[in-house]
Each structure stands twice: as C-alpha cells, then as structure tokens.
Amino acid sequence: MKGIFTTAFAVLLCFSIYAQSPRTLTVQKCLEIAMENNLDIKRANLDLTSNEINLKQSQYSRLPNANLNWSYGFNWGRSIDPTSNQFISQRITSSGLNGNSNMVVYNGLRQFNTVKQNRVNIEASESDLSRAQNDLIINIANLFLGVILNEELLANAQYQLDNSRTQLDRTRILVESGALPITNQLELASQVASNEVALVNAQNNLDISMLNLKQAMLIPTSDEIELEIPEFQQIENPDLSMSSETAYGVAEQVMPEIKSADLLVESAQLGVKVAQGGIVPTVSVGGGFSTNYSDARDQRFVSDGTFSVSDNPTSAVTASGEAIFPLNPGGTFEKVGYTEQFDDNLSWNLGVGISIPIFNGLNTHSSIQRAKVQLQQAEIGSLQARNVLRQQVETIYTNAVAASKTYTASLRQVEALEETFRSIENQYNLGAANFTDYQVASNNLFQAKSDLVRAKYDFVFKKKVLDLYQGKPLSFE
To answer: What is the number of other CB atoms lying within 10 angstroms of the CB of residue 275?
Structure first.
C-alpha cells in the first residue's frame, strides 16, 4: 500500500511539474492560436456561412413549391353539406384534404441573377476573410517580434549591468590598494545603480510586450509561454530595383481587399438587374387537387331492382278520380366510408398564370433606384480601396527602405563604438583614461547596441509586411 501511494504521488508530481512548465511557441503556432480565437475571424466565417445559405436558398427557389393542407371540424345548426352542397340542419363532422404546387417559369431572370449575385457575395466574403487573416498576421508578427526585441534589450541591459559590476569589483580592489581614488569607486557604483534601473525598465517592457501578445491571441495572461526565436536568414536590403509603383501593381493583383471591392461592384451590378426584373411580367404554372368527407353522407341506398306499392296515396288522382299510390324501390343502405368519399369527391386542377405589373406604388422604381445608388457606392468603395492600398504600399515600401538604411548605419556604428570602448577600457584599467571617458564610451556602446537591436527587428518586420503585400506567405525562416 505504501508503494502504491508513493507511485501515485510521483505521478501527480510529474503532472504538476508538466502543467506548470511554460509552453514554447513559434510564430506559426502563435498565428494558429490567434486565428482560432480571434473574434473578427469568427465573424468573417459566419458572414461567409450566411452567404452560402443565401446561395442555397436562391438555388432552391427555382424549384416548384408544394403544399399539402388537411382540415377536420364540426358544424351545428343550419349548414351546407360539403359533399352535396345542400342545406341540412344537423351536426356535421367534416374533413378536407387539398394540395397545390406552383413554379415560376419566367420572371425577368430575377432568380437567375439572384443566384449569380449570391455566388459573387460568397467570393467577396472569402476575400474579406483573407483580409481579416492578413490583418491578424501583421499584428501577431509585430507583437511577436516586439517580445523578441525586448528579450534582446533585456539581455543587453543584463550584459551592461554585469560589465559594470565587474568593473566596480576591479576598481574596489584598486581603491583598497591605494592605486585609485575613492571617487572612481563611487562613480562606478552610481553607474551600476543606473544600469540596474535600465534592467528593471527592460524587464517591464518585456512583460508588457508579452502581455500584448497574449491579449492578441486571446489566451489567459496567467499562461506561461516562451517564444522560440527564429533563425533569421541573412538580413538583406529589400529589392530596390522594384519601385513602389511596381510594388503597388503586384499588391493590386493579390491583395484580398481589392478583390472584395471589385466583387462588391459586380454584386451591385447584378442587384440592378434583379431589381429591373420587377418590371417584367411573371409567368408561372401550377396545379393542385382537393377532396373532402362528411358524416352527413355516411350512408348510401343501394337498390335491389324490386318495387313495392306504398300505403299512402299521392295527392294526384287518375282521370276517373282514383287515388295514385307511389312505388317504393326495394334495397338497403350501406355506409359510405372515409376513403370512398375522398375518392368520389377528388378533383384536380392545372393552369398557367401571367402577372403583369402595372402600378405598385412605385416600389419597383424605387428598388431600381436604390440598386443603382448601391452600385455607385460600390464603385466608390472600389476606388477608395485602391487609394488606401496605394498609400499603404508606398508607406510600407518607403519605411522598409528607410529601416534597411538605419540597420546598416547602426551596424557600422556598433562596430566602431566597440573598438572605441575596448580602447578606452584598456586605458582606464591602466589609469590612462578617467572615469568620465569610460562611462561615456560604455553608455554610447550600450545605446548603440540597443538601437541596432531595434533597427534589426524594425527592418525584419517591415520587410515581412512588404513581402505579404506582394503575395508571399509570412515566414521567419
């Protein structure tokens, strides 16, 4: 029993440790989580589903409709027997069954154009979904790189603090031996304190950037995650041989917002045709059947071919004045059942109808005018989408070029300041340089390295966004 409890405790401990260990997420995994949880994506998917339902409905509307009706009821007092159309004064139990079907043969191609319009609307919804996905990709990529940036800045701040502490320990020994004045130790202690503040600020920036990424993925902030830093390829300048005008031309062909805007124009054009179909006569064919049952006709007399003389004379007499006695046919009464009455009373109908619109309060005219206004709005929306895309591409292209120049300049600056710092650090250790020169060189190198990290990730992000606008998939490998 003791061994069983020990094993169970060990298993639970392993599960607890596993549950508390942070998940390691790549940028692709972050995108998958965000795609699954994002509300805009879900809303776009629902819009697409709604348009698919509209398409099916418009397709099925071209089929004949069919309706079947059944009734059952009671009548008291003077009423009409539904089977004989005669007045009777008794309670009647009656039942009826009828069915009808109708199909539109021609109505100005309204049904045909509605189906086409709904197909176009589905394509537009698919493009809207792609646009929402692209927006989410850009946002997640930016936040992901922001976390990585702040991790590198934190590592840089930690390195700067460790270097200052090492220098402080070395200086403290020299001060204790009398080789350096106490002011050098105090100045380095102040530098260490400043670096500690910088480290705290870097950690805060990292925490905030991680919080922003979790919120964008819609996962609990209590979830512990770690990001897998991608191995970036050789950072190269963007293709400067491609002008911003060429970049816009490619983006115009591949970006979903342009396709969506053009499809909305096509949908609005079909909407005008649908509305214009309202002024055309509608031709339809239809048919149906009806039958009924009544308990007032629940018996039927069946003659056996014999007759008997009645005992009661009629009011008429012969020429000689003799009474006339009527003949009563011989036979029996038989019950007329439910099914037999339905068969006897069954009737069918078939017909063709033409509906010619003459005047309906200008509803059709107003519908056509509204459809034309919607077409004009869609055309303006298409033009606006192109203008917005042009501005976005021009801005992204210019920013990518500027970011590449900034990265190149920052790289050269760090290389130069590293040489300067090594030289001044050696001179300071030998007593040939004062603390002010050392501190200035150290701070300049720290700031330059921070600027280089920012420039690198700024360029990577803007280059990836430019690639996305050229129809290339997002990849950091």
So the answer is: 22
102 contacts 64 by C-beta, under 8 angstroms:
yes
CB contact at 8 A, 449 and 159: no
The H-or-E segment that residue 107 falls in is none
Closest CA to 208 of 151, 289, 138: 151
The better pLDDT of the pair 100, 341 is held by 100
User: What tokens were used for 102?
Assistant: 């109708």
Per-residue exposure over 20-48, b if at least 16 CB sit within 10 Å of its own CB, e if not: eeeeebebbebbebbbeebeebeebeebb
Q: What's the pLDDT band for 299 if we cut at 50, 70, 90?
A: low
Q: Cα-Cα-Cα-Cα dihedral of 121, 122, 128, 131, to 10°? A: -130
Q: How far apart are CA 256 and CA 132, in angstroms?
A: 9
* Cα 35 from Cα 133, distance rounded (Å): 7
| C-alpha R_g of the chain | 45
221-230 pLDDT per residue, tens:
989 999 988 8
Q: Where are the alpha helices (DSSP H) in 177-255?
A: 182-217, 244-254
CB distance 310 to 328 below 8 Å: yes
